[in-house]
C-alpha cells in the first residue's frame, strides 16, 4: 500500500485543465445551491491523496464522506468498471444477470443474511428497509435515535434527527419517534406492540462520531425480538471495513433483520443494498424496485471492491491504524479539545467550540477533514492511508489546535 504513496508524483495534471476559479465560477452559476462548498476544486485522486486544480496536494480524511474506503482511483475497481462497461451496463432486474448473481451471493456470504435488495445510494437502502419493515410487520411506527442520520429522501429524512434537514420539508412521514442514543431505559419505553422497526447506526457518524454501547445495541435487538419489531442497522457509513471489522455490527455480535449498506460498497461507484434477515419473511412481488438497482456495472465494481478489501485485509488495517491514530490524537494537549473518540478509522475530535474555522485551518495545511455536527472534527480517511500520512495529519491537527487561528 505504501508503494501507492510513492507512485503519486508520477501523474502530472492535464495541460488543458480549467483553472480553479473557472471551475468554481461555472459550478456556482449552475448548481442547485443546496451544498455549502469549500473554495477548492478537486480534480484528481490516488490512494489517500487528492489534488486541486492548481496542483496542490492534500491528504484526504473526508474520504468521499465514507465512499472512498478503498482509496481514490483504486486500480482494481477501475479495471472492473472499464471491463464491464464494454460488456453490459444496463440490465434491469426483470432479467437475471451474471454480475448481479455473483454479487448477491457474495453479499449474503459476507453478512450472514440470506437475501438482498440492490439500489443506488444510502437513502434508498434506508427507504427499502423502512418499507419492507412496514410490509413485514403490518405496523407503521419506527423508533429512531436522536442525532441519527439516515438520508434525505422523505422516509429516511423522517428517521433523521437534525432539525435543519427536517423542518423545511415538514410534514414528514408519520409514525417516527426519536429517543436518546445509548439510553437503555428510553429505548425500552419506546418499543411497543405498534413498533415496526428500530433503526440505529452502530456508530453515529454525522451526529458526532458516537459509538453505540454494546449493551444498548444488544438491548435493541432483544426488544425487537421480544416485541415483534425488526432491527434495522444503518451501516451506510460504518460498513466495508471502516470501523475495523467488515461491518460494525460484528463488534457486538448482532443479527440485524435489515442491514443498510452504500458508500464504499462498490469502491466509490454509486450503489446501495438492503440485506434482509430471516425474520422478514417473503416480500410480495412488484412492491418495490429500481431501474438502476443491481445494474451489472455497479455489481462488477462491488465484486472488485470486496475482493480488494479482503485481499488487502483493510478492516484489520483500519483497526490497527485507527487505534494508533486515536492514541496519537489523544496526546495533543489543547484546551480546545473535549474528547477524542471513534472506532477503527472513523474518528472524531469533539471541540469546545465550533469546528468550521479549524477545518479551514487544516485545509490550509493540506489536510481535508469533515465536520460532524457543529463541534466535532471527523476523520474518514481511505483505509489504504499509510501511517506516515496519518502522522502528517496528527501534526497538522496539533498545529491548528495548539496555535491561534489568526496565524493561518
Ligand atoms: C449513516 C448514514 N445513513 C444514510 C446516509 C445517506 O446516504 P446517501 O447520501 O448515499 O443517500 C448517510 C450519508 O451520509 C449516512 O452517513
Keywords:
disordered N terminus, 408 residues, 7-stranded mixed beta sheet, 4-stranded mixed beta sheet, 18% strand, 37% helix, alpha/beta, 17 strands, binds pyridoxal-5'-phosphate
Topology:
Layout: H1 2-7, H2 20-30, E1 42-46, E2 49-52, E3 57-60, H3 63-66, H4 75-85, H5 98-111, E4 115-119, H6 122-137, E5 141-145, H7 154-159, H8 163-166, E6 176-179, H9 184-190, E7 195-201, E8 203-204, E9 210-211, H10 214-227, E10 230-234, E11 258-261, E12 272-276, H11 296-311, H12 314-330, E13 337-343, E14 346-351, H13 356-364, E15 367-368, E16 370-372, E17 376-379, H14 387-402
Parallel strand pairs: 3-15, 5-6, 5-7, 7-10, 10-11
Antiparallel strand pairs: 1-2, 2-3, 4-12, 8-9, 11-12, 13-14, 14-17, 16-17
Bound molecules: pyridoxal-5'-phosphate (PLP).
Task: Report what the structure shows.
- There is one protein chain.
- With 408 residues, the protein is of the alpha/beta class.
- The chain contains 14 helices and 17 strands.
- A seven-stranded mixed sheet has the order 4-12-11-10-7-5-6, with helices on both faces.
- The radius of gyration is 21 Å and the shape is globular.
- The two termini are 33 Å apart.
- Pyridoxal-5'-phosphate binds at residues 65, 121-123, 126, 149-151, 201, 205-206, 234, 236-237, 262.
Amino acid at each position: 500500500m505504501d508503494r501507492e504513496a510513492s507512485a503519486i508524483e508520477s501523474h502530472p495534471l492535464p495541460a488543458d485543465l480549467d483553472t480553479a476559479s473557472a471551475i468554481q465560477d461555472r459550478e456556482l452559476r449552475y448548481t442547485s445551491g443546496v451544498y455549502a462548498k469549500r473554495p477548492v476544486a478537486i480534480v484528481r485522486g490516488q490512494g489517500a491523496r487528492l489534488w486541486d486544480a492548481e496542483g496542490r496536494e492534500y491528504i484526504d480524511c473526508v474520504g468521499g464522506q465514507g465512499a472512498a474506503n478503498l482509496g481514490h482511483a483504486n486500480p482494481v475497481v477501475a479495471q472492473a468498471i472499464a471491463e464491464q462497461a464494454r460488456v453490459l451496463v444496463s440490465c434491469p432486474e426483470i432479467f437475471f444477470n451474471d454480475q448481479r448473481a455473483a454479487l448477491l451471493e457474495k453479499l449474503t456470504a459476507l453478512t450472514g443474511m440470506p437475501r438482498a435488495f440492490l439500489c443506488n445510494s444510502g437513502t434508498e437502502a434506508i427507504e427499502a428497509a423502512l418499507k419492507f419493515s412496514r410490509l413485514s410487520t403490518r405496523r407503521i411506527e419506527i423508533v429512531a435515535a436522536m442525532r441519527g442520520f439516515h438520508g434525505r429522501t422523505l422516509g429516511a429524512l423522517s428517521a433523521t434527527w437534525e432539525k435543519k434537514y427536517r423542518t423545511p420539508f415538514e410534514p414528514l412521514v408519520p409514525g417516527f419517534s426519536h429517543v436518546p442514543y445509548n439510553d437503555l431505559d428510553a429505548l425500552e419505553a419506546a418499543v411497543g406492540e405498534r413498533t415496526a422497526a428500530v433503526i440505529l447506526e452502530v456508530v453515529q457518524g454525522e451526529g458526532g462520531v458516537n459509538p453505540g454501547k454494546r449493551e444498548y445495541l444488544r438491548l435493541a435487538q432483544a426488544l425487537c425480538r421480544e416485541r415483534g419489531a425488526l432491527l434495522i442497522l444503518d451501516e451506510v457509513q460504518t460498513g466495508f471495513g471502516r470501523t475495523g471489522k467488515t461491518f460494525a455490527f460484528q463488534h457486538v455480535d448482532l443479527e440485524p433483520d435489515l442491514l443498510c449498506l452504500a458508500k464504499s460498497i462498490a469502491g466509490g461507484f454509486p450503489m446501495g443494498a438492503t440485506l434482509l434477515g430471516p425474520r422478514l419473511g417473503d416480500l410480495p412481488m412488484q412492491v418495490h424496485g429500481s431501474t438502476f438497482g443491481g445494474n451489472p456495472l455497479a455489481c462488477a465494481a462491488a465484486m472488485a471492491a470486496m475482493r480488494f478489501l479482503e485481499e488487502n485485509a483493510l478492516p484489520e488495517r483500519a483497526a490497527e491504524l485507527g487505534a494508533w491514530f486515536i492514541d496519537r490524537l489523544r496526546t495533543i494537549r489543547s484546551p480546545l479539545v473535549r474528547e477524542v473518540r471513534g472506532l477503527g478509522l472513523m474518528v472524531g475530535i469533539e471541540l469546545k467550540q465550533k469546528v468550521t474555522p479549524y477545518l479551514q485551518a487544516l485545509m490550509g495545511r493540506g489536510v481535508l477533514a469533515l465536520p460532524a455536527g457543529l463541534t466535532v472534527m471527523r476523520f474518514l480517511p481511505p483505509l489504504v492511508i499509510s501511517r506516515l500520512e496519518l502522522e502528517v495529519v496528527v501534526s497538522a491537527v496539533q498545529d491548528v489546535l495548539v496555535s491561534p487561528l489568526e496565524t493561518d
